[in-house]
Design brief:
Length: 103
């Protein structure tokens, strides 16, 4: 794999998988790190371009995960609140088939 080909693949993977400002920063850093190095050294040190981007992407996963946890928690709370209100308002319509057991 040629150096330019390696950087082109890295740029493509970074722009696809990372936020724009992080992708630009990563591309700049890797451009400096790969200057004057052979293809074999790049592959041995950084792995495939996709793997290098995945290693950086792991750093941003907790932020995304925490965002989803917050959204999930809020949705569960609202669902429980809605269920409670329905049980108070119309208890016989919330669980119409409660006496039927499914096997």
């Amino acid at each position: 794999m040629k150096r330019k080909n390696y950087l082109a693949r890295l740029c493509r993977a970074a722009r696809w998988r990372l936020p724009p400002e992080e992708a630009a920063e990563m591309i700049g850093d890797y451009t400096e790190l790969t200057a004057g190095r052979s293809d074999e050294e790049l592959i041995l040190d950084f792995g495939k371009p996709k793997d290098a981007v995945d290693k950086v992407r792991i750093l941003y996963a907790p932020r995304e995960l925490n965002s989803w946890r917050i959204v999930f928690g809020v949705l569960c709370f609202l669902l429980l609140l809605f269920y409670k209100q329905m049980m108070i308002a119309i208890p016989h319509l919330v669980i119409p088939y409660a006496d039927i057991y499914l096997c």
